[in-house]
Write a structure and sequence with these properties.
By secondary structure, the chain is an alpha+beta fold. The chain is built from 7 helices and 11 strands. It has one domain: Phosphatase 2c, domain 1, CATH 3.60.40. Helix 6 packs antiparallel against helix 7.
Protein backbone atom coordinates (compact mmCIF):
# COMPACT_ATOMS: atom_id res chain seq x y z
CA UNK A 1 0.00 0.00 0.00
CA UNK A 2 1.29 3.43 -0.99
CA UNK A 3 -0.03 6.69 0.44
CA UNK A 4 0.25 10.30 -0.64
CA UNK A 5 -0.63 12.96 1.94
CA UNK A 6 -0.79 16.71 2.43
CA UNK A 7 -2.06 18.91 5.22
CA UNK A 8 -2.53 22.56 6.08
CA UNK A 9 -4.00 24.78 8.80
CA UNK A 10 -5.19 28.38 8.82
CA UNK A 11 -6.32 30.73 11.58
CA UNK A 12 -9.45 31.71 9.62
CA UNK A 13 -10.94 35.18 9.24
CA UNK A 14 -12.29 35.84 12.74
CA UNK A 15 -9.85 34.36 15.28
CA UNK A 16 -6.60 35.94 16.43
CA UNK A 17 -4.76 32.67 17.07
CA UNK A 18 -4.91 29.09 15.87
CA UNK A 19 -5.94 26.39 18.38
CA UNK A 20 -5.88 23.56 15.81
CA UNK A 21 -2.98 21.13 15.43
CA UNK A 22 -2.19 18.53 12.78
CA UNK A 23 0.40 15.83 12.34
CA UNK A 24 1.43 13.72 9.38
CA UNK A 25 3.52 10.72 10.39
CA UNK A 26 3.85 8.78 7.12
CA UNK A 27 6.47 6.37 8.48
CA UNK A 28 3.82 5.11 10.92
CA UNK A 29 0.98 5.62 8.40
CA UNK A 30 -0.62 7.79 11.08
CA UNK A 31 -2.41 11.11 10.51
CA UNK A 32 -4.03 13.34 13.16
CA UNK A 33 -6.11 16.52 13.38
CA UNK A 34 -7.01 18.09 16.74
CA UNK A 35 -9.19 21.16 17.44
CA UNK A 36 -8.42 22.72 20.82
CA UNK A 37 -10.70 24.61 23.16
CA UNK A 38 -10.09 26.77 26.22
CA UNK A 39 -9.17 30.36 27.03
CA UNK A 40 -5.73 31.99 27.20
CA UNK A 41 -4.43 29.86 24.31
CA UNK A 42 -4.84 26.66 26.37
CA UNK A 43 -6.79 25.10 23.50
CA UNK A 44 -3.65 25.37 21.44
CA UNK A 45 -1.74 23.65 24.25
CA UNK A 46 -4.31 20.84 24.43
CA UNK A 47 -4.39 20.14 20.70
CA UNK A 48 -0.61 20.16 20.46
CA UNK A 49 -0.34 17.81 23.45
CA UNK A 50 -2.84 15.47 21.81
CA UNK A 51 -1.02 15.06 18.51
CA UNK A 52 2.42 14.90 20.13
CA UNK A 53 1.40 12.34 22.75
CA UNK A 54 -0.20 10.01 20.21
CA UNK A 55 2.78 10.38 17.86
CA UNK A 56 5.31 9.73 20.64
CA UNK A 57 3.38 6.65 21.77
CA UNK A 58 3.43 5.25 18.24
CA UNK A 59 7.14 5.92 17.83
CA UNK A 60 7.94 4.26 21.18
CA UNK A 61 5.81 1.18 20.56
CA UNK A 62 7.23 0.79 17.05
CA UNK A 63 10.83 0.86 18.30
CA UNK A 64 10.49 -1.15 21.54
CA UNK A 65 8.16 -4.13 21.99
CA UNK A 66 8.76 -4.00 25.76
CA UNK A 67 7.28 -0.51 26.25
CA UNK A 68 4.60 -0.60 28.93
CA UNK A 69 1.22 0.37 27.59
CA UNK A 70 -0.86 2.75 29.73
CA UNK A 71 -4.08 0.74 29.39
CA UNK A 72 -5.03 -2.91 28.98
CA UNK A 73 -5.70 -4.28 25.52
CA UNK A 74 -9.27 -5.05 24.54
CA UNK A 75 -9.22 -8.74 23.63
CA UNK A 76 -11.88 -8.32 20.94
CA UNK A 77 -9.88 -5.66 19.06
CA UNK A 78 -6.88 -5.94 16.74
CA UNK A 79 -3.43 -4.99 18.04
CA UNK A 80 -3.23 -1.84 15.90
CA UNK A 81 -6.71 -0.71 16.95
CA UNK A 82 -5.68 -1.15 20.60
CA UNK A 83 -2.55 0.84 19.86
CA UNK A 84 -4.62 3.70 18.50
CA UNK A 85 -7.03 3.65 21.45
CA UNK A 86 -4.18 3.59 23.97
CA UNK A 87 -2.43 6.53 22.32
CA UNK A 88 -5.57 8.68 22.35
CA UNK A 89 -6.50 7.70 25.92
CA UNK A 90 -2.97 8.56 27.07
CA UNK A 91 -3.27 11.96 25.40
CA UNK A 92 -6.56 12.52 27.22
CA UNK A 93 -4.98 11.68 30.57
CA UNK A 94 -2.02 14.02 30.05
CA UNK A 95 -4.28 16.90 29.02
CA UNK A 96 -6.57 16.30 32.00
CA UNK A 97 -3.64 16.10 34.44
CA UNK A 98 -2.15 19.32 33.04
CA UNK A 99 -5.47 21.13 33.42
CA UNK A 100 -5.88 19.90 37.01
CA UNK A 101 -2.33 20.93 37.97
CA UNK A 102 -2.44 24.39 36.36
CA UNK A 103 -5.45 26.63 37.19
CA UNK A 104 -4.77 28.73 34.10
CA UNK A 105 -5.43 25.63 31.97
CA UNK A 106 -8.72 24.69 33.68
CA UNK A 107 -11.33 23.61 31.15
CA UNK A 108 -8.90 23.08 28.30
CA UNK A 109 -9.55 20.23 25.92
CA UNK A 110 -9.46 19.15 22.31
CA UNK A 111 -11.18 17.02 19.73
CA UNK A 112 -9.14 14.46 17.83
CA UNK A 113 -9.52 12.47 14.61
CA UNK A 114 -6.96 9.89 13.55
CA UNK A 115 -6.38 7.47 10.70
CA UNK A 116 -4.00 4.55 11.02
CA UNK A 117 -3.40 2.73 7.72
CA UNK A 118 -2.46 -0.94 7.66
CA UNK A 119 -1.96 -3.42 4.84
CA UNK A 120 -5.54 -4.57 5.28
CA UNK A 121 -7.26 -1.19 5.50
CA UNK A 122 -7.53 1.82 7.79
CA UNK A 123 -8.45 2.23 11.44
CA UNK A 124 -10.42 5.33 12.31
CA UNK A 125 -10.29 6.79 15.82
CA UNK A 126 -12.02 9.93 17.06
CA UNK A 127 -13.36 11.96 19.96
CA UNK A 128 -15.38 15.16 19.46
CA UNK A 129 -16.81 16.83 16.36
CA UNK A 130 -13.82 16.99 14.06
CA UNK A 131 -14.52 14.72 11.10
CA UNK A 132 -13.16 12.14 8.72
CA UNK A 133 -14.59 11.75 5.21
CA UNK A 134 -13.82 9.23 2.48
CA UNK A 135 -13.99 10.49 -1.08
CA UNK A 136 -13.97 8.25 -4.13
CA UNK A 137 -15.83 7.36 -7.31
CA UNK A 138 -17.43 10.79 -7.29
CA UNK A 139 -18.96 10.34 -3.84
CA UNK A 140 -18.23 11.66 -0.36
CA UNK A 141 -19.19 9.98 2.92
CA UNK A 142 -18.65 11.06 6.51
CA UNK A 143 -17.19 8.10 8.43
CA UNK A 144 -17.17 9.62 11.92
CA UNK A 145 -20.14 10.58 14.08
CA UNK A 146 -20.03 14.00 15.74
CA UNK A 147 -19.93 13.88 19.54
CA UNK A 148 -22.03 17.04 19.72
CA UNK A 149 -25.22 18.26 21.36
CA UNK A 150 -26.70 18.86 17.93
CA UNK A 151 -26.02 15.29 16.81
CA UNK A 152 -27.50 13.91 20.04
CA UNK A 153 -30.61 16.01 19.39
CA UNK A 154 -30.82 14.79 15.79
CA UNK A 155 -30.92 11.20 17.05
CA UNK A 156 -34.07 12.05 19.00
CA UNK A 157 -35.82 14.37 16.58
CA UNK A 158 -35.67 14.99 12.84
CA UNK A 159 -34.87 18.61 12.07
CA UNK A 160 -35.21 20.61 8.89
CA UNK A 161 -32.07 22.23 7.43
CA UNK A 162 -33.41 25.58 8.67
CA UNK A 163 -33.84 24.23 12.21
CA UNK A 164 -30.34 22.79 12.15
CA UNK A 165 -28.93 26.14 11.02
CA UNK A 166 -30.80 27.94 13.83
CA UNK A 167 -29.95 25.39 16.55
CA UNK A 168 -28.76 27.53 19.49
CA UNK A 169 -26.01 25.22 20.80
CA UNK A 170 -24.62 23.95 17.51
CA UNK A 171 -20.98 24.16 18.64
CA UNK A 172 -21.39 22.38 21.98
CA UNK A 173 -19.49 19.08 22.06
CA UNK A 174 -20.36 16.32 24.52
CA UNK A 175 -17.09 14.41 24.38
CA UNK A 176 -13.52 15.69 24.10
CA UNK A 177 -10.02 14.94 25.35
CA UNK A 178 -9.38 16.57 28.73
CA UNK A 179 -12.98 16.74 29.94
CA UNK A 180 -12.57 13.77 32.30
CA UNK A 181 -9.79 11.52 33.56
CA UNK A 182 -10.82 8.80 31.10
CA UNK A 183 -12.43 8.99 27.68
CA UNK A 184 -14.21 6.64 25.30
CA UNK A 185 -12.53 6.53 21.88
CA UNK A 186 -14.77 5.56 18.97
CA UNK A 187 -12.96 3.34 16.47
CA UNK A 188 -13.83 1.52 13.28
CA UNK A 189 -12.09 -0.34 10.46
CA UNK A 190 -12.57 0.32 6.75
CA UNK A 191 -11.35 -1.62 3.73
CA UNK A 192 -9.54 0.50 1.18
CA UNK A 193 -10.19 1.22 -2.48
CA UNK A 194 -7.47 2.39 -4.84
CA UNK A 195 -7.31 6.13 -5.51
CA UNK A 196 -9.83 7.04 -2.83
CA UNK A 197 -9.01 10.00 -0.60
CA UNK A 198 -9.48 10.36 3.15
CA UNK A 199 -10.08 13.85 4.55
CA UNK A 200 -9.45 14.72 8.20
CA UNK A 201 -10.71 18.16 9.21
CA UNK A 202 -11.68 20.42 12.07
CA UNK A 203 -15.17 21.92 12.10
CA UNK A 204 -13.70 25.12 10.74
CA UNK A 205 -13.98 23.34 7.38
CA UNK A 206 -17.03 21.11 7.81
CA UNK A 207 -19.03 23.92 9.42
CA UNK A 208 -18.32 26.34 6.57
CA UNK A 209 -18.25 24.17 3.43
CA UNK A 210 -20.98 21.72 2.46
CA UNK A 211 -20.06 18.10 1.81
CA UNK A 212 -20.92 18.35 -1.88
CA UNK A 213 -18.60 21.32 -2.33
CA UNK A 214 -15.80 19.51 -0.48
CA UNK A 215 -16.27 16.58 -2.84
CA UNK A 216 -16.15 18.84 -5.91
CA UNK A 217 -12.98 20.64 -4.80
CA UNK A 218 -11.10 17.42 -4.03
CA UNK A 219 -12.16 15.76 -7.29
CA UNK A 220 -11.42 18.78 -9.49
CA UNK A 221 -7.93 19.17 -8.02
CA UNK A 222 -6.99 15.86 -9.60
CA UNK A 223 -4.06 14.27 -7.81
CA UNK A 224 -2.67 17.53 -6.40
CA UNK A 225 -3.46 17.15 -2.69
CA UNK A 226 -1.64 20.32 -1.65
CA UNK A 227 -3.75 22.33 -4.08
CA UNK A 228 -6.90 20.68 -2.76
CA UNK A 229 -5.96 21.58 0.84
CA UNK A 230 -5.39 25.20 -0.16
CA UNK A 231 -8.66 25.40 -2.08
CA UNK A 232 -10.67 23.86 0.77
CA UNK A 233 -9.26 26.40 3.22
CA UNK A 234 -9.87 29.24 0.77
CA UNK A 235 -13.50 28.14 0.35
CA UNK A 236 -14.04 28.05 4.12
CA UNK A 237 -12.58 31.54 4.43
CA UNK A 238 -14.68 32.79 1.50
CA UNK A 239 -17.78 31.56 3.35
CA UNK A 240 -16.87 33.50 6.49
CA UNK A 241 -13.92 31.66 8.06
CA UNK A 242 -15.43 31.93 11.54
CA UNK A 243 -13.10 29.32 13.04
CA UNK A 244 -9.63 27.88 12.60
CA UNK A 245 -9.47 25.56 9.59
CA UNK A 246 -7.35 22.42 9.41
CA UNK A 247 -7.31 19.71 6.74
CA UNK A 248 -5.31 16.60 5.94
CA UNK A 249 -5.85 14.66 2.70
CA UNK A 250 -4.50 11.11 2.18
CA UNK A 251 -4.75 9.29 -1.14
CA UNK A 252 -4.40 5.53 -1.37
CA UNK A 253 -2.38 5.02 -4.54
CA UNK A 254 -1.79 1.27 -4.59
Amino acid sequence: MQLEAAGSTHVGMKRNHNEDSLLLLPEQKLFIVADGMGGHASGEVASRMAVETVADFFRETAEDDEVTWPYKLCKDKHYEENRLINGVMLANLRIWETAVADPSKKGMGTTIVTTLFTNGGVYIGHVGDSRIYRIGQGRIAQVTEDHSLLNDYLKMKQLTPEEIEAFPHKNVIVRALGMKETVKVDTSFLNLEQDEVFLLCSDGLSGMVRDGEINRIVNESGKNLEQACSELIAEANKNGGTDNITVILIRVTA
